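Subject line: Sequence and fold of a protein, written as structure tokens
Area: Proteins and the way their chains fold up in space.
Start of record: The labelled sequence and token lines come straight after this line.
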Amino acid sequence: MAFKVFDLQCEHGHLFEGWFASHADYDSQRERGLVRCPLCDSASVERKLSAPRLNVSGLKQDAPAAPPAPPAGRPESVVQGEVIRHLRQMLKQIENVGDRFADEARRIHRGDAPERAIRGVATAQERRELAEEGVAVAAIPALLDDDNLQ
């Protein structure tokens, strides 16, 4: 299956790529709020103009092609990609407590459980309550969750 690769940008200026089956697939996913910034989780995402990608795999080459240069004017996207890869690597090393996150975070905060880095699932309400109790928590964008830690 061929994919459409779009250059995307969130309302905060973060640049990233999205791969979609078609323009209609992008539009559908965006309308349903599934297209989100991997850095800030914003659903306010727009397509940017991008250079066309050509499939030239059938062309004969006499010499190996040089690796492509990073796209001009987009060093931010390279840095953002590195940050995402680094975060994924860090998250792989943190204990996943699943839907017990709020309870386990409270236990650690009170000293009833050993202090350690944990991650898991918490509702917006649970995150607010934890913050009110003085427990530091941060939401992790969906692109960094277990299903995407490869």
About this structure: Helices lie at 23-31, 75-92, 101-110, 124-132. The chain has two domains: 1-49, 92-148.
